[in-house]
Every structure is written in structure tokens, then in C-alpha cells.
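Quick one, C-alpha cells below. Sequence please?
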């Protein structure tokens, strides 16, 4: 759009003239930017005077004026969307709390408050700066305007339509004027001192006195403002005044009165035309300007309304079209300019009205008026005829013709822009189509139709501008309509320019549906129109080249006939100008913009097409490198998605670019893919491609001047004309065993049409030592459709050839169409590993080229799971053809796993389970060799317990019958083929019964293998589970026995207890056991006060125990202490060691050790002990003794009484009361006479004692009784029993007779 006048395309806004502040200088701008963030500019914050530094700082007034000027001129031009949809800007209330400041900014605050409450948006103004004495030009009533077609000196005289200068004039004519003044103070009178009198303010705010000098200056200022107001008011222009205050003036209580005086005498309105501003922060200054704009916006609109009325009044004075004289035929044939016609004057006025409406931001009215002007302009530009009252003799390519076309294009742009703004995309597109169709019709009459490059230049520009307009609208929120939206919108079919194809009759009735949409009538996103502009630009270049060639031929003919003219014609001038245009760059620019738009809207297919068009444009421009990059980029997608026909075209263009660049490597890559069967082309073209490839490799004079670097072409990344696949026969194999594989090369029906000779085929493995290279021998054509080439038995290793090729063999590697050749090879691995065929390389070698067609199998392809695995086998019949057989699985198997051979030995175990703990359990393993030669075997045995390591181990028995411990591996020695060797070993387990897992590993190597550590060894493993059970189970019963007490009162600190321990030993073995002995082994125990001694025992045993047999052993211990006051602890007793072996077994015995429970003194407490004779008879008196024991260190007071019974009569105290000292005892004696025989109740002493403030009943026990404890074999307490609390039942025998 930069080729059109800016004034035509600029969106106008009301013009505001500003005077009284000048643009800041460079130093002032820097200082203003530094001071703009200050919260206030107070004179009190600056020093009154400062020494001269060479740079005088700006005054607060200068800083404020510079800030205002910068804010006023911050944005001069705006777009349609910015002018009509500005953001909402809330206003701010004045921040000063003083009365003077509030009075000084009363007008601004009132306007700001109203604007804030209404949430009004801030309008835009075009601000121009004028001098203070500016006056408007005064038109003379008898003289026409200098821009009128009636003025002889006008550039439009006599038949011009409109000039951009008219728009420029109104963009410089203000609709409102703002004058900036400063309120006078004594700082403006240098050398004079302000009066010292202070104003006195009364209770009502009335000033008692005012400075006469200030009043005089204020009156003069008010007069000056009033004169300017009257002047502009007479011109119909609103005038507003802005007074600049200093910071200290806002604190002066008399400033409010001075401002009221100026306002009244100047005749200005406080709300809309009189404003004050004091220094403040940036946002307050910005808000002040917004408030000023909102106040002056309505007067500005009124000014342009008045302009519209004046223009329409002038238009109404035009003579009617019927009364205007038609141009005569003489005028039509005359070349003299004619006066402007009625249509021309009407067009001028309509354009002016539309412009003023646009100034008012009345877009709906402006678009209608512009459409009227456009139709008038279309009638004016129509080819001249006797019926047309337009511009007569409007010669094509003339100045008036060019101005009219430019105006028509600009009006069309504005109409389209306005329709998009009004969200009417159909109308915008309809206007664009009308404009193109109209001028397409006129162009033929003007001699610049579709066969001229001028037409395509204009058309490309129109589409480019329309795309820019749509893109600009989208940036401001316009939504491109969806085509289906037209089908659901009611009444759309009846709308002018509707894209709907309605039913017969031109309307949609009830229940009827639209038949469809017209795509050309639906607005698309900008990418479509950028693309059309690019296509028009390309057509422009073609038309230009055609016309240039024709003109060159004419010039050549004229030169031959000597009829050439010296002066260039108009066409030659156009051609000369067109030669300076870079058509390809323009086309690429439009295509790039279109590509970005389609990419933005995610039209993937179209982006690829545009990329191809960009590449083609680069090719036409001779930028082959860029074209080739684009072709390669888009070729990947078409190749991946199998668009073969499109890919063929791309490859051909890429081939041309590569040859133009001399990039023969890329040319070969394109030719190799062009030979593929999938790419459609004729047979002759395919033959030509193959010949051209061979010519580049062998004969091309330019391509074979130097020796090229090796070239590798990835055939798996392109369409290959030779299909290659690999297959291993099995997925696993063994060491020292041949591994078979097959390489299949196949061709299709259509390629190669000529025999294709391969110089070498290299098979690349993951391990380079297995690499293989097949050299091409004879070049004779092989006519077999299916052939098996087995080189697995004919490979010979050679030192010649390329390093790393491995095994090399020569054979015929020529391929023809419809042929499949399968190459079968083999290798032998010495190690266990995974071997993979990484790739196959088909080498094309010439004196200057080494090209490798590489097939990579390192990554699996997507179609490998489609076909079943096949293996080609030779025919078993003489002269037969090989046949494919199917293998298990699908796809290609290019990896084989090499494993060791399975071991050929057998392991068998002999044992008698279960095993017993603490014995040496004998097992034997028999190793049987099935190998064909002598093997050397080593045996490894390991015992495992699921509960963890508990002291289990393995013993091996050597030839001298010695036992070796702590060894899990032993050499068995050589074993002859077909023989066996038996080797015994022993297992030992203790502590814990359960299942043990026995792992046996027989590791062996062939006698023929090397005696090195890396020699291959084979291994045979066996596992067996052996249950281990405990041979004995033991239960312990521990009984405490009290001894007889002394009769003396002193008690002493010594104390002893007898403990009887009974061990019940049970045989748990499933076999009979020979028990040699049960031995008590007392544990050493050292304690300062405690001691344990064995009193007696009964453990002599030597016998055969059967399963379930129980044998008791008794031990009586005495547990003593020398000081009962010392704390006690459990005393360990010892262990029982049982010597045993299985019944009938010879050899040494096994020993099982059973731990015995610990003993501890019974807790000391107050107790009553009853002592009676062992035998009692009826009618025989006896003495009953009750002893009160106090083994504690606390005094005990007690009361007691004897319970009477029927079985006895007694003599003694019936009730007692006394005390027993710590560590002492007291005894009471009763003579009892039995009256009854049998189990009778003894007279019971019921004693209640109080000790440490606690009273309780003291229990009674018989002498020699105590607690009984039961323990398991794991020494867990089972049944603890307490002392009998009522030991009063005794047995009395019958009366004896002498």
C-alpha cells in the first residue's frame, strides 16, 4: 500500500491544535525523562541557588511543559480499530489535600470524576503544534480555493477530481484549539522582590487583600485568552485554555481566587474549556490529557458536522444532470481538457462528506457515502462514449487517468476495511470482487487487458492489499467466518453478495434448505489472497518476458530494415521500468506470507504446496541452492505419505537444481530414487534416468573431472528400485556352529529396464570380524527370475581388498527387471554374543566415484510385521527351481543370539532323607558323561537355608577318607566318554530345623579345548531339597523346695533354696538312635553373692531310643545368696550333651547340645510357714508350728487368729498380736489332737500384717513346698504356678493299736 498516497489510506481523527508549549530540546528531553517518575516537582525540594556548573537545570515549568508536549504528541496516527475502540481509562482524583490545590484543579477533577463514573473511553486526536499568534487562512468570497478545479493555478484545473493536498489541508486544520498559559508569579520578574505582606483570609474564604501586580497580570492574561476565544469561536472552532501552575502555587491560598478571576473575565467554562495542571507524576499528567480529550471530543465532532453541512449545501447548488450540457462530438474528438462534469463535482462532494464522516468516526455513514463516490468514479472511468458525461478524452496512462484509478483503488480499500470493521465479511468480499470485475472490463478498452503485464501488476497489488486488510482485522479480533455458518444463518441467502446458492425463486422458503455455498463468495483467511497475489506476480513476470521478447524481435526487425526510431515509445518506457522489478523476490515474499498464514491456520497440505511454489520461484530466479533446500524439505513428507506422483515432480525439479549447481552427489541421489517402480513415469523416461546416472558415474565430462569423496545413499530413507531384506534361519545358535543367513535382492516389473551392474555387495555385521564382501565378477545378464547363490561353503579369507571387508568372494552381481537373487552365507562364532546384520551396501565403483547404496537394518521398519518370514531352499530334484518355505514369525530377523551348547552330562543324587540336625548327613552324586571325548569336571556344592546362614556347611570326602571343611568346590577329574563317576559328600546343619536347598553345579571342559581361562566351559546344574529335623525334643519342669527354718529369733542375711529340675527327653528321629550318654555340663558363673551347686543327679543312660521314646533326667540344685538385700539375677545352669548315632551305624557319634533354663531366687516377702510332722494318727497329739518370716528390711505389725475346726482340738493362743523385725522370724506352737482320720482341715492361722502403711493378709505355705515352672525345648515358660495360698489340708491316719 506504500505505492498509494498516504493521505488516501490514513484513517483520520479529529485535529487538535496546541500552542503555548514548544518541543523540548535534547537536553530537556533527557531531564524530562529523569523527572517523569517524581511524585511531585516542588520548588521547596530544590535549592534556591546553586553554583554555576555550566548546565543550568530546567525550571519546574519547563519540565512540566516538556512532559505535556511529549504526552500530547506521543501518538499522531492511529488505525481504525484504535480510533473507534480505545481502551477504557479510569480517571484519577486529585491527590493534594489542601484547599488551594483542590480549588486550582477543580475543573479537571470535576471532569475526571464524571468521566470515571461513566467509564467513558478516551478518544483520539491528531495533535499539531501552532505558534501562539496563529490565524486561520481567510478565503475570499470571489476567489476559488487554490485546490479547486476552477482555480487556474490549481493542480486540478480544469478537470481534476480530488487531490491528496486537500486531505492534507484538513489534517492540518484544527477542529479544537488548546492554548497553554502560565499563571504569573514574582519569579517572572527578575531583580524584583515579592511584597512581604501576607494575605488575610476570612472565615468565608474572602481575601482581605490582593497583590496589585498579580491582579494586573491576571487581568492581562484573561484579556489575551478572551481575545483568542472570540477569534476561534467566530471561526466555529472550540477554544480551551490550560493554565500551568507551579508546585508552590498549589499551596498558596490566594491562587483559587486568582483562577476564578481569570476564568470569569476570559469567558471560559470550568467544565469543558478551562483547565489547570500542576507538576505531578506521569500517570496524573496522562489522566489530565485524557480528561481534556474527553471534554473537547464533542466540540470536535460538531465542527466536522458543520463541515458536512457546508459540503452538502454546496452539492445542492449543482445543476441537475438533465440541465447539464452533454459534450459535443467535437469535444469528444478534441484533445483539449474539458471542464469537470456534473459527475466529477458530485464525486468531489461525496468524497469530502465521507472524509468528514470518517473524521467523526461515523463508520456506517462513511461506508455508504464512499460506496456512492465509488460508483460515480466507476462511471467516470468508463470508456468514453457519446452517452457518458464523465471525463472526456481520459487517455489511458495519462495523469488524470492515473489519479482516477488511484482514487478508485484507495476508496475500494477503505470500503473493504470498513465492512470488515462492521463485521460484514460478505460485503467486503463482494466489494473486492466488484472492483476487480469492473476494472477487468475497463482494462481491455484501455489496452492493458489480461495479455499485458500491467494488468497482472495491478491485480497482484489488489490481492496483496486485501490480504493485508484481512490480516490487520484479524489482529484486532476479527474472526474469519466458517463456511457452514452461512447455512445456519437465517436470511443469509437473500442478502446481497451472499455466498449461498438458494432454491429456485431466489429465496429460501419455510422448510427449504440451501443447496450449497459459492466458495468464491466466502471470505477466507489472508493466506489465500497472498497466494493469489503471488500467482498474479508470477503471471506478471511471464507476460513481461513474452512482451519483452516480442519487442526485441520487432527492434531486431526494425534494425534490419533501418526503420528504427530514435525516441523510445511508451511501451519501451514501461518495459524499461519493469526490468528494474525483482519479480521473483516479490513472488517469494507473497508465497512466504501465505505459507505463514496457512501454517497458522494448520492447513498442512497447503503449506507443502506453497513450499513447492516457493521452491519453484527460487528456481526461476536462479537461486538453485534455496530451491533445492525447499524441495528436499517437502519431499520428505510426500515420500513418507506415499504421494508418488507429487514426489516424482519434486525429484525432477531437484535434479535440475542439482545439475545447475554442479552438485552431482545430489543429482545421483535424485536419479537413484527416480528409478523406483513406485514413481510413475514412462519406460523411456526411466531408461533415460538410468542412462543419465551411468553417464554421471562414468562418462560425464564435468562430473568426472575430479575424484569425489565416497558417497553413501540411505536407501531406507527413499523409494528404492532394488528391494533388500535379510533373514537368519534361526533366532538362536550355538558356539562353534555355522550360522546361516540369506540376503535377498529383488527388482520390480518396471525397474531397472536395463541390466544394473553392482560392483560389490558388502554385508556389515555388528561385530566387524564377520563382515563379508562379494565382488562383482562378470557382467553377463542373468535371466533367471529366482536364483539362490550359496557362498557359505566357498568363502576364503584374503588380505587383499578394502580393510574391514572381512571375507571376500567374486560372483555375478548384475540385476535385471523382475528378478530375485538370494545370497546365502554363514559364519561361525567362538563366543556367546548377540550378532546383528547392521546393513547391506551395494557399491557402484568407477574411476572417479564410489557410491554405496546403503540399506540399514539397525532400526526396524513399520511394515516388517506384515509378511511372514521366508527361507529359500535349493531344489532336491536335478534341474529344479529353488522354493521358498515359511518360517515361524513375521518380518525380518536380522539378529541371532549365540549361546553355549547344552551340557551332555547327567547328575544323579543318592541319599536317605530326612537328615538329622547335628549329624554328618551323607550324600553321593553320580556324574555320567554323554560327550564324545574326555571331560574334566569340577563339582560345586552349596547348601542354602531360607532362614539365613545358621552354621550349615558341606564336607567333601577325598581318596584318603579324610574330611575337609570350608570348601564348596572340588575337582572331580577326567571322566571317560560313556562312563560315570560317583563322588560322596556330607552335609552338616545345626540349630534350626527346616528344609535346606542343595545346589550342585558340574562345570566341565573338553580335553581337546585350550587350557586357558577363556576356553569354553559348559555347566550342568541340579537342585534338591533336603528336610532337616531335630533328633530330640526336651521339656523342663523346675520345682522350688523350701528348707526348715531355725528356731532362733535372729534371721541373718544368708538364704538358700533348693531347685529340682526334671528334663523330659523325647526321641524325634524317624529311625532308632543309639544314645551313648546324657552328660550335664555346668556353666561357669561368678557372682559376688550368688552361687549355684549341684546337690544330686539321676542321668545315667545308655540304651536304644525308639521314635517317641521319652527319658527323664533329674538334677537337684542349691541356689544360695550371702546377702538377701542385694539385687538378684537369673543364674545360668548349663547344658545337656547327648552322644548318639543312628542305630546300626558305624563310625563316630554325633553330639546334640540342649541348653537348660536359668534359675532365680524367689521374690522375698512376708510369709507364714506351717510345719507339721510327716505322719499323723488319730488320737495321737502332735505339735503344729506356725513361723512368721519377714525377709524384708521393713518392720511388720500383725494380728492373727486361729480358725476352729471339727477335726482337731488344740491348746495355744487363739488370738495373737505382735510385730516382727526386719530380717527376723517369730514362731507359735500349738498342741493338736486329731479327732478324725483322712483328709482333714488343719487349724489355720489367719494373719493380717501391716507393712509400710499397707495392710494385707499373709499367705500360708507348708515347709518344703514352692513354685513349679514348666519350660519348652526353646526355654519358653509354659505354665507358671504360684505357691498354694491355703495349705491347710493334711492327711491323718487311723488310730494305731499297739
Amino acid at each position: 500500500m506504500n505505492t498509494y498516497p498516504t493521505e488516501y489510506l490514513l484513517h483520520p481523527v479529529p485535529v487538535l491544535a496546541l500552542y503555548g508549549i514548544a518541543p523540548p530540546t535534547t537536553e530537556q528531553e533527557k531531564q524530562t525523562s529523569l523527572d517523569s517518575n517524581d511524585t511531585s516537582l516542588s520548588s521547596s525540594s530544590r535549592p534556591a541557588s546553586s553554583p554555576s556548573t555550566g548546565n543550568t537545570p530546567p525550571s519546574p515549568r519547563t519540565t512540566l511543559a516538556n512532559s505535556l508536549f511529549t504526552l500530547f504528541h506521543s501518538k499522531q496516527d492511529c488505525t481504525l480499530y484504535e480510533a473507534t475502540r480505545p481502551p477504557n481509562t479510569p480517571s484519577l482524583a486529585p491527590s493534594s489535600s489542601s484547599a488551594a490545590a483542590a480549588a486550582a484543579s477543580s475543573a479537571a477533577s470535576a471532569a475526571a470524576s464524571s468521566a470515571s463514573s461513566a467509564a467513558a473511553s478516551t478518544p483520539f486526536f491528531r495533535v499539531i503544534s501552532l505558534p501562539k499568534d496563529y490565524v486561520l487562512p481567510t478565503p475570499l468570497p470571489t476567489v476559488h480555493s487554490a485546490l479547486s478545479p476552477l482555480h487556474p493555478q490549481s493542480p486540478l484545473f480544469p478537470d481534476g477530481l480530488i487531490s491528496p493536498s486537500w486531505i492534507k489541508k484538513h489534517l492540518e486544520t484544527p477542529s479544537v484549539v488548546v492554548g497553554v498559559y502560565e499563571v504569573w508569579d514574582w519569579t517572572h520578574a527578575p531583580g524584583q522582590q515579592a511584597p512581604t505582606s501576607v494575605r488575610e483570609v476570612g472565615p468565608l474564604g474572602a481575601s482581605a487583600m490582593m497583590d496589585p501586580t498579580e491582579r494586573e497580570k491576571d487581568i492581562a492574561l484573561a484579556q489575551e485568552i478572551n481575545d483568542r476565544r472570540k477569534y476561534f469561536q467566530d471561526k466555529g472552532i472550540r477554544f480551551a485554555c490550560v493554565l500551568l501552575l507551579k508546585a508552590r502555587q498549589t499551596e498558596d491560598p490566594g491562587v483559587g481566587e486568582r483562577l476564578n478571576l481569570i476564568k470569569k473575565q476570559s469567558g471560559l467554562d470550568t467544565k469543558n474549556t478551562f483547565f489547570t495542571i500542576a507538576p505531578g507524576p506521569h500517570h496524573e499528567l496522562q489522566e489530565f490529557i485524557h480528561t481534556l480529550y474527553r471534554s473537547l471530543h464533542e466540540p470536535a465532532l460538531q465542527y466536522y458536522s458543520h463541515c458536512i453541512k457546508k459540503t452538502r449545501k454546496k452539492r445542492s447548488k449543482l445543476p441537475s444532470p438533465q440541465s447539464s450540457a452533454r459534450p459535443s462530438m467535437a469535444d469528444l474528438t478534441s484533445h483539449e481538457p474539458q471542464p469537470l462534469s456534473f459527475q466529477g463535482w458530485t464525486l468531489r462532494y461525496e468524497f469530502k462528506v465521507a472524509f468528514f464522516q470518517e473524521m467523526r468516526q461515523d463508520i456506517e455513514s462513511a461506508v455508504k457515502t464512499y460506496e456512492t463516490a465509488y460508483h460515480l468514479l466507476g462511471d467516470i472511468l468508463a470508456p468514453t462514449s457519446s452517452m457518458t458525461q464523465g471525463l472526456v478524452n481520459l487517455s489511458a496512462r495519462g495523469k488524470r487517468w492515473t489519479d482516477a484509478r488511484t482514487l478508485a483503488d484507495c476508496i475500494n480499500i477503505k470500503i473493504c476495511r470498513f465492512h470488515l470493521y462492521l463485521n460484514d465479511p460478505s460485503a467486503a468480499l463482494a466489494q473486492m470482487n466488484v472492483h476487480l470485475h469492473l476494472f477487468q472490463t475497463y482494462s481491455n478498452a484501455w489496452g492493458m487487458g489480461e495479455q499485458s503485464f500491467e494488468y497482472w501488476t495491478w491485480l497482484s497489488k489488489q490481492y496483496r492489499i486485501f490480504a493485508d486488510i484481512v490480516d490487520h482485522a484479524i489482529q484486532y479480533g476479527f474472526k474469519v467466518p466458517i463456511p457452514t455458518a452461512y447455512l445456519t444463518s437465517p436470511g443469509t441467502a437473500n442478502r446481497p453478495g451472499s455466498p449461498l446458492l438458494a432454491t429456485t425463486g431466489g429465496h429460501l422458503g419455510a422448510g427449504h434448505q440451501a443447496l450449497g455455498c459459492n466458495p468464491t463468495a466466502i471470505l477466507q483467511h489472508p493466506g489465500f489472497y497472498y497466494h493469489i497475489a503471488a500467482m498474479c506476480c508470477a503471471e506478471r513476470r511471464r507476460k513481461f518476458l513474452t512482451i519483452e521478447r516480442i519487442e526485441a524481435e520487432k527492434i531486431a526487425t526494425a534494425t534490419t530494415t533501418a526503420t528504427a526510431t530514435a525516441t523510445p515509445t511508451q511501451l519501451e518506457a514501461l518495459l524499461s521500468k519493469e526490468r528494474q522489478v525483482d519479480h521473483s523476490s516479490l513472488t517469494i515474499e507473497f508465497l512466504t506470507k501465505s505459507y505463514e498464514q496457512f501454517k497458522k491456520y494448520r492447513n498442512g497440505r497447503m503449506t507443502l504446496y506453497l513450499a513447492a511454489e516457493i521452491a519453484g520461484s527460487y528456481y526461476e530466479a536462479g537461486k538453485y541452492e534455496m530451491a533445492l533446500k525447499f524441495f528436499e524439505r517437502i519431499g520428505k513428507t510426500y515420500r513418507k505419505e506415499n504421494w508418488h506422483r507429487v514426489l516424482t515432480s519434486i525429484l525432477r525439479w531437484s535434479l535440475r537444481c542439482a545439475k545447475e549447481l554442479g552438485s552431482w552427489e545430489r543429482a545421483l541421489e535424485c536419479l537413484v530414487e527416480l528409478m523406483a517402480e513406485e514413481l510413475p513415469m514412462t519406460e523411456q523416461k526411466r531408461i533415460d534416468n538410468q542412462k543419465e546416472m551411468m553417464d554421471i558415474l562414468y562418462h560425464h565430462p564435468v562430473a568426472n573431472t575430479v575424484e569425489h569423496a565416497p558417497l553413501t545413499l540411505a536407501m531406507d530413507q527413499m523409494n528404492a528400485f532394488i528391494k533388500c531384506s535379510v533373514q537368519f534361519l534361526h533366532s538362536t545358535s550355538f558356539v562353534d556352529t555355522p550360522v546361516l543367513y540369506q540376503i535377498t535382492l529383488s527388482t520390480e516389473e518396471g525397474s531397472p529396464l536395463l541390466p544394473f551392474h553392482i560392483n560389490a555387495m558388502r554385508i556389515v555385521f555388528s561385530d566387524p570380524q564377520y563382515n563379508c564382501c562379494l565382488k562383482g565378477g562378470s557382467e553377463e545378464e542373468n535371466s533367471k527370475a529366482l536364483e539362490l547363490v550359496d557362498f557359505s561353503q566357498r568363502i576364503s579369507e584374503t588380505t587383499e581388498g578394502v580393510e574391514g571387508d572381512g571375507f571376500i568372494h567374486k560372483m555375478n552381481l548384475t540385476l535385471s527387471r523382475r528378478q530375485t537373487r538370494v545370497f546365502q552365507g554363514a559364519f561361525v562364532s567362538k563366543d556367546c554374543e548377540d550378532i546383528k546384520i547392521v546393513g547391506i551396501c551395494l557399491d557402484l565403483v568407477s574411476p572417479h566415484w564410489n557410491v554405496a547404496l546403503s540399506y540399514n537394518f539397525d532400526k526396524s521398519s513399520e511394515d516388517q510385521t506384515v509378511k511372514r518370514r521366508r527361507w529359500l531352499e535349493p531344489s532336491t530334484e536335478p534341474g529344479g527351481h529353488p522354493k521358498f518355505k515359511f518360517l515361524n514369525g513375521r518380518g525380518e530377523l536380522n539378529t541371532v543370539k549365540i549361546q553355549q551348547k547344552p551340557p551332555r552330562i547327567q547328575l544323579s543324587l543318592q541319599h536317605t532323607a530326612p537328615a538329622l540336625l547335628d549329624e554328618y548327613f551323607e550324600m553321593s552324586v553320580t556324574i555320567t558323561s554323554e560327550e564324545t571325548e574326555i571331560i574334566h569336571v569340577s563339582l560345586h556344592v552349596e547348601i542354602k537355608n531360607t532362614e539365613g546362614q545358621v552354621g550349615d556347611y558341606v564336607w567333601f570326602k577325598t581318596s584318603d577318607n579324610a574330611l575337609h571343611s570350608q570348601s564348596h568346590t572340588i575337582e572331580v577329574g577326567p571322566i571317560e566318554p560313556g562312563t560315570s563317576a560317583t563322588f560322596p559328600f556330607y552335609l552338616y546343619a545345626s540349630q534350626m530345623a527346616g528344609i535346606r536347598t542343595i545346589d550342585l553345579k558340574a562345570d566341565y571342559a573338553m580335553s581337546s579345548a585350550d587350557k586357558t581361562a577363556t576356553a569354553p566351559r559348559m555347566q550342568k546344574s541340579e537342585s534338591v531339597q533336603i528336610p532337616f529335623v531335630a533328633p530330640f525334643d526336651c521339656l523342663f519342669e523346675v520345682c522350688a523346695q523350701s528348707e526348715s527354718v531355725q528356731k532362733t529369733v535372729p534371721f541373718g542375711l544368708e538364704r538358700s533354696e533348693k531347685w529340682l529340675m526334671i528334663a523330659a527327653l523325647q526321641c524325634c528321629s524317624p529311625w532308632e538312635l543309639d544314645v551313648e550318654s546324657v552328660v550335664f555340663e555346668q556353666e561357669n558363673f561368678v557372682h559376688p553373692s550368688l552361687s549355684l551347686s549341684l546337690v544330686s543327679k539321676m542321668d545315667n543312660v545308655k540304651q536304644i531310643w525308639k521314635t517317641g521314646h521319652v527319658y527323664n533326667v533329674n538334677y537337684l540344685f542349691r541356689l544360695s545368696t550371702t546377702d538377701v538385700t542385694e539385687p538378684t539375677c537369673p543364674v545360668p545352669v548349663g547344658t545337656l550333651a547327648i552322644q548318639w548315632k543312628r542305630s546300626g551305624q558305624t563310625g563316630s557319634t554325633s553330639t546334640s547340645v540342649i541348653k537348660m533354663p536359668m534359675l532365680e531366687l524367689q521374690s522375698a516377702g512376708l510369709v507364714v510357714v506351717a510345719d507339721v510332722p510327716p505322719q499323723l494318727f488319730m488320737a495321737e497329739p502332735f505339735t503344729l508350728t506356725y513361723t512368721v518370716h519377714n525377709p524384708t528390711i521393713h518392720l511388720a505389725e500383725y494380728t492373727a487368729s486361729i480358725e476352729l475346726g471339727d477335726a482337731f482340738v488344740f491348746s495355744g493362743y487363739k488370738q495373737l498380736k505382735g510385730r516382727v523385725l526386719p530380717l527376723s522370724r517369730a514362731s507359735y506352737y500349738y498342741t493338736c489332737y486329731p479327732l478324725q482320720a483322712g483328709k482333714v482341715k488343719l487349724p489355720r492361722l489367719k494373719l493380717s500384717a501391716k507393712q509400710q502403711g499397707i495392710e494385707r493378709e499373709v499367705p500360708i505355705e507348708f515347709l518344703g513346698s514352692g513354685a513349679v515352672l514348666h519350660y519348652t525345648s526353646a526355654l519358653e515358660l509354659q505354665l507358671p504356678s504360684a505357691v498354694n495360698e491355703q495349705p491347710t489340708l493334711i492327711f491323718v491316719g487311723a488310730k494305731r493299736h499297739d
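The chain is about 30% helix and 25% strand. The longest helix spans residues 526-561.
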